[in-house]
Please model this.
Amino acid sequence: MGRSTRLGSLWVLVGLGACQPDAATQVLVLIRAQPGFDDASQVRVRVEAGDGALAYEGTRSVDPRSPEPLARVPLIPKDGDASRGFRLVAELLNADDQVLARIEANAGYQLDTLSELHLWFDRSCRGVVDCGPGRTCEGGSCVGACFRPMTLGELEASRPECGECQSCSDRVCVAVADDSPCGCPKDRCRGGACTPARPTNTIFGGHLHTCAGSGNDLYCWGSNRVGQLGTGGSSTTSPAKVMGGGWGEGTAAQEHTCVVKIGGTRACWGWNGNAQLGLGVAENQAQRTPIVPTTGDLEWTTLASGWFHTCGLTKTRGLACWGLNQGGASGQAVAVERVLTPTLVDGAEDWSAIAAGGFHSCGLKSDGTLWCWGLNESGELGLGDSADRTTPTQTGCPNGSCLGEWTAIGAGSFHTCAIRADGELWCWGGGLNGQLGVGPLSTEDSAVPLRVEFGQWRTISGGASHSCGLQSDGSLWCWGKNESGQLGLGDTEPRLEPASVLVPGKNEWIRVSAGRDHTCAIRSDRSLWCWGKNENGQLGLGRATPEGDAPITRPARICLPDP
Model:
């Protein structure tokens, strides 16, 4: 066991690798580094007692590629007084003593409790070494440095509790001065919260690209191999303004994008080899700028897209689909390979919501009933079998009797989830990667709806093999496949049940959209955040993440350019 030193109001075990003492009230600080710090050779740690007195300072050599923590720092308050606090500063240095990254943590103790504080050098914070007093870097931004140690084994990474416009004073988050810079270049602090200069109102993620709306302006980024950005230019890793204006709700798919313009007209662009643009023709060429049908189109309110087909709701509550009709995805009873123009599904005008998966579609009617059609090889229609359906068939019948009062629906590539009026979430279909969110059963496909056991849900979105949803309190949860960090949890481990996605400060979200292997969401302050796979720049960070590099595993702030 290491030698103990008593200074001021704090006991510190001397030696960054010292073993843990048998103390009733203690915080064990574990310090690690994300991939991306291979040039690090030392870690330097400074600990101050609550009154500011230096309690410990030391440096040790490290191997950032080792699975072991860079440092273990056991802390004990004087006389076991749990009301005392501490300030810990850790710096990661290279062989030339250059500081690569810095962490500050202000925290306290719990009486008669052994707690842990897990601190990570964040790759997105490399080079950010001066956030100011009481602040630290998290996700590439400076935030208040208040932390709360947790019970042993409860978590793998501790998160600061303060937001971008707060500092930590005596373990309390306090507002920084108004008009202080925060977030994106022109964002400013107001009352302790960051006010975006470009508030985001819509977000929709595709396979290798993403689009978001601010006011009447639309921006897209990522791959533009077949024109799916609609900018007329090349691929981009930063948001680029789409030509034209007055955009509303939209949808992004594998290789095309469609948006409802102000007033209800529709514009689409991208690849049209399966008539997914709904222009009356299927042609293997890229439409690189938005094109609005000139005659015979319907008036729209919302759109949804699968891999190669698109569906939408009209102002008269009709439902129409077009594009590839594989497995009946476009909802037409007549066997046809492609539907060239928007064609009404079942002729009824009582639809209230629509979602489209890889090769299937599902919709809600105004009476709260749930209907699905299309490919069903993984049970994604929720009908208890694997037979395709070419026209809408009522589903949502987990116990043999069909339930009403469905309020929201989301579809992934081969799975579907829906929410009832009482907030219950049910999922079905392909589940091999945990995207159904029902625990161990998530590792199997299910042709019948399975209930996600906890939470009151209000919206749901499906990616290729992951799902994300918002609960009634505004919290954001994701589950399923995570090899690209698409769950936003700071690692690449899959989750079989919903796990909470956190950013510093107030964690209230209003929208979420799951792309193929990435996710984007809008917070209640209308700031935009994305995470996950970024090989094509689909996160909008201004840079791509080459294959083999560590993915973006936590939400990162996305900045839209000036109008």
In short: The first strand starts at residue 4 and ends at 7. Confidence is low (pLDDT under 50) at residues 1-11, 13-21.
